[in-house]
Specification:
The protein is of the alpha+beta class. It has helices at 11-30, 41-50, 93-108, 122-130, 169-182, 189-197, 247-261, 276-284; strands spanning 2-5, 55-60, 63-73, 76-84, 112-117, 134-144, 161-165, 201-208, 211-219, 230-238, 266-272, 288-299, 310-312. Strands 1, 2, 3, 4, 5, 6, 7, 8, 9, 10, 11, 12 and 13 form a 13-stranded mixed β-sheet that branches. It binds coenzyme A (COA).
Length: 316
Amino acid sequence: MSIRKMVERDLPEVMKVDSDAWSKWRLESSGKREKLVPRPVSLLRMYLDSDPDGSVVALDNGKVAGYGFARRFGTLGYVGPVAVDPASQGKGFGKRLTEACTDYLARAGVETIGLETMPHAPKNLGLYAKLGFKTDGLSFSMEKKPPSKVLLPTGVGSEGIEIVKADSEDAISRIGDVCKQALHGMDYSKEAYYVRKFDLGMVLLINFHEQCVGFAICYTFRTPTQKVGMFRVKFSAMLPEYCRSPYVDAFVDSWESWALKLGLTGVGARFYTKNERTLDILLSHGYAVASSHVKMHKGRFPLDDIATLHIEQWGG
Ligand SMILES: CC(C)(COP(=O)(O)OP(=O)(O)OC[C@H]1O[C@@H](n2cnc3c(N)ncnc32)[C@H](O)[C@@H]1OP(=O)(O)O)[C@@H](O)C(=O)NCCC(=O)NCCS
């Protein structure tokens, strides 16, 4: 067995491992025998391009038997997705891949190495615990169907609110400014650049009298077999002083309106459940829990003292 950096020509084999490993997990966890489509190649290309030194493959007799991605966002780095071909599982590949990903993040100097896994996956939980990851609370993925008509900002103070699609370098740098003020070193501005570069979705900014007070980096892609996809808010945050009505309501309404305009089936967002502010916002907007993950980390845990809207999925 050997581990090496991933290169572009590995991607077809990486996609095969992705489909086979996750189809096996689905059968084990739900009894459903179905061939899952792999993640879109543009998404994998984006991971590889954004963190080439954190993208690795495991080789078994010269063939790709597993893959791992690690991604860095300022002081935060996370591991995932990681998967091993069913025929090669149980031989130490998953462990070696996860270690290679955490080594990259440690070398990059992040303060937090995070990951998320399924709470009903004893093997995964045991594997990560053995590698020194501490277990935190749950993340919820919450979802909602789009509204029947476009929603416009309403309420006192809503006159100065503007929600815009960010398509300039300057607009994206404003995300870095919001992160600096609201997220203590976690910085998602890189993702805004890559989502646009690989045409995976859109970046929304909420401005109040031309000051950027929040952002949402959203995935809107469809998998090859899907006619319609979801509007997934991958990362979002607001300045704490604007995380209230009418600003936050207008922002959440804008996601749903975009989902409607793009003909998508729903809006989804994943976040740490101990962030009660985010939980309250999504519950009060009619979102329902669709699934949950366990957060695990090494190093500093940065999420407990964030009391503003913060949507963050650790993993692919
Ligand atoms: C999770 C996955 C990547 C693991 O890969 P793998 O190559 O089978 O894992 P490994 O053989 O390297 O390691 C398994 C480790 O977990 C340990 N383990 C397994 N079950 C365990 C349990 N119930 N409790 C404690 N430890 C356990 C094993 O003992 C082994 O550790 P060891 O090498 O110290 O003995 C693989 O099963 C997979 O692709 N699953 C589907 C996709 C997935 O779940 N990806 C991860 C999402 S977070």
